[in-house]
Write the structure tokens for this entry.
Amino acid sequence: MYPRIRWGTHGGFVGEKTIIAWTDHTFNIAWGCTKVSDGCAHCYAETLAKRYGFKVWGANGDRRVFGEAHWNEPRKWNEKSNPKKPTKVFTSSMCDVFEDHPIIDRERTKLWNLIALTPNLIWQILTKRSERIAECLPPYWDEIKDRIWLGVTVESDKYAYRLFHLNKIPCKVRFISNEPALGPLTCSLYGIKWVIYGGESGVGYRKKM
């Protein structure tokens, strides 16, 4: 069976509606990140953060975090969600859940707790830091894994190694984001149920090689 392919971008914040075609809500545990691969060169999240005046990029940079009202939003979605057709929540478009950063480490722990408290939600998590996934999972992963769609960004075959790490993690759905698609993707998609595909856009965009 071939993976299901969806097109679109994964920008977004938090709210009742989202422009992302493949999810129902977006929820960010924080704002800020550090660039780690080719796909990060024209990061929309960095551009947006700078537009708002937040200095939250780079390994030594701060991270913007949120209060109780923000963290309570998914609980409201959980109450409205139909267990037979669970609401999907993408986290996090403005950071990387698995970044090695003290603030993200703290907020990630809060995320795992939140997921455990929202049994009617499907959580979609996408990362470029596949090598850190296993060490960052909570001790109760087996209790929440069936509500997790876990994905890695693979801009080209250069980053196909991320699939190796991903396929070691038990979860409901494993997926990849070939966005921005910067080069050939000829690697095996064994174990992958879903592929997001999209080119780079905006000023200075790079064409797929």
Notes: The chain has one domain: 4-197. The first helix runs from residue 44 to 51. DSSP finds six helices and seven strands in the chain. The helical segments are 44-51, 68-80, 102-116, 133-136, 141-144, 161-166.
